Amino acid sequence: MMSLPDESEISLSGRTAQTDWIIGIAIMIVSLSCAVAYYLILSTIYKDKELFRMASYKFMFFLGVFDVCQCFPHFVTGIFTVNQSVFHPLLAKAMGVIATPCYVTFTLLTIFLSFNRFIQLSSSNLEMFFFGGKRWMIWIVIACSIWILFVSALSSPWATIRYIPDWYSWGYDTDLPFSKYVQKVEMCIEIGGIFVSAFFYLLIIHKLLKTKKQYLISKSYNAEIKVLIQATVITVYCTVLNVLWHNYTWILPPHLWSYTALNFMWICNSAVHPIIYFIVNKWVYRNKFSQFLYYFQSDSTQNWNKAIWNCSRSCFSIRTETENGKSDTYRSYPCLC
Asked: For 278-337, what is each residue's pLDDT tens digit?
C-alpha cells in the first residue's frame, strides 16, 4: 500500500514511548468500538427475515462482515504498537492476510451494492434478471473468489503486507518479488472501484430527480434522500482514503503522523457505516433499545410498543396517479441502510 521511509529516519520522526502507548491504546479502543457497533447492525439485519430476503440487505450484510473482520487485525496492531514488536514475522504476515483481502472484498461489494441500488430503481425486470432468486449469490461468490486470490497471494512467500510498529502504519515488503504486483492490483480495485460506485450513485440521483416529477412522493422521497446522504458520505470517505493511501505523496508530507492519520482513516472506515446507519436509520438503535426495555414493562405496554415498532419498520410507498388524477398503484421500497 504505502512505501514507508527507511527505519534510520525514525529518530527524526517524533515517536516516543509515550506516543507508542497513546497510539496503541487508541487503535485498540477505536477498532473494538467499531466491531461492537457493527455487530449490533449485522445482528439486526440478520434476525429480521423480512429485510434479509432482499438482495440489497444481503449485500449489506456480507459487506459488513468483511468490514468488521478488519477490526481484529487492527486491534492486534494496537498491541504491536504498545509493545513495539510484532512478536513473530508470521503473526505480522497473518494480520496482513486478514486485513487487506477483507478491505478489497469490501470495496467490491460496495460496487455491487451501488449497482443493485441503481437496477432496483430502474427496472424490476432487470432486477429480477441480475438479482432474482438465488442469483444474488453469484455476486457474493465473485467477491469471495477475489478474497481467496488475495489471501493466497499474501499467504505465499513471494508477497507480504505487514504492520510496522515504528511507523504506526502498514507497508508492503518490497524485497519480495510479487509484493508490488499485488499492491498494483489492490490499488486498481480500490481506486477504480470507488469511482464506479460514485458513478452509479450519480445515476441514482438523476433517477430520483426524474422520479420526483412523476410521483406524488414526500415520505418516500425523503427516505431515498437519506439513503443517498449515507451513500455519498461513505463514497466520499472511501474515495479520499483510497486515493491518499496509494498516493499520499501527492498531498501529505512523508512523516510519521501522516502515516498514522492514514492508518486511523482505514480503521475508522469500519466506523463510518455504523455511524451513518444509526443516524439515518433510527429503527436500528430503536430496535435494540426497545428490546432492552421490553423486559421491564407490563403486558399491555409491551403489546403497544410492539404495535408501534411493527408500524415504524414497515416499508414506505410511492403513490402513482393516472391521467384522471385517481390513485393507481402503490410500490413499496425499503429504506436501505
From this structure: 776 665 555 554 554 454 454 544 444 444 444 444 343 333 434 444 444 434 444 443
Q: Which is it for strands 316-321 and 169-172: parallel, antiparallel or unpaired?
A: unpaired
Alpha carbon 143 to chain centroid, angstroms: 14
The grid coordinates of residue 130 equal 441480475
Residue 116, strand partner residues = none
The number of folded domains in the chain is 1
* CATH number for position 148: 1.20.1070.10
- Rounded CA separation 205/210 (Å): 9
- Dihedral angle sign, alpha carbons of residues 92, 98, 101, 104: negative
Q: Take residue 261 and report the three cell numbers written for it.
A: 492519520
pTM more than 0.70? yes
> Residue 15 above 80 pLDDT?
yes
Chain-centroid distance of CA 38 in Å reads 10
Domain extent, residue 217, equals 13-292
Residue of 321, 137, 97 lying closest to 214 (CA atoms): 321
Does 6 reside within a domain?
no
Q: Cα angle at 235 between 31 and 41, to 5 degrees?
A: 45
| Helix runs in the chain, H state only | 17-47, 49-52, 55-69, 71-83, 89-122, 124-131, 136-155, 179-214, 219-247, 256-280, 282-294, 299-312
Q: For residue 94, tell me if it sits in a domain.
A: yes
Residues in Cβ contact with 10 at an 8 Å cutoff, skipping those fewer than 6 apart: 166, 167
Whether residue 326 lies inside any domain: the answer is no
